[in-house]
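anyone seen this seq b4? input:
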Amino acid sequence: MSVKVKDNGDRITISWLVSKFNIDKKEITNVYEGSEYAGDASISVHIGHPYANTDRIIIETTSDNYLIYTSNGDGILELLQEG
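predicted toks r here
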């Protein structure tokens, strides 16, 4: 099952399997494509299957850093950078 990212106005919802993460857009400080396999030590939340996906999107917020493993990196990156 793939990771789903949805724009809900003032917040972003990330769904994967039975997990759901809601992130307020005002808390997002940076969004970019990661080049390292598992990210760095600052990543506190890993979402998705790391083995089956080639793209890694990193969302930095004021409280946590998220790493999304996906095969739709460009689409997710575009959605997050528009908001």
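The two ends are 25 Å apart (CA to CA). The mean pLDDT is 90. kinda curious what u guys think
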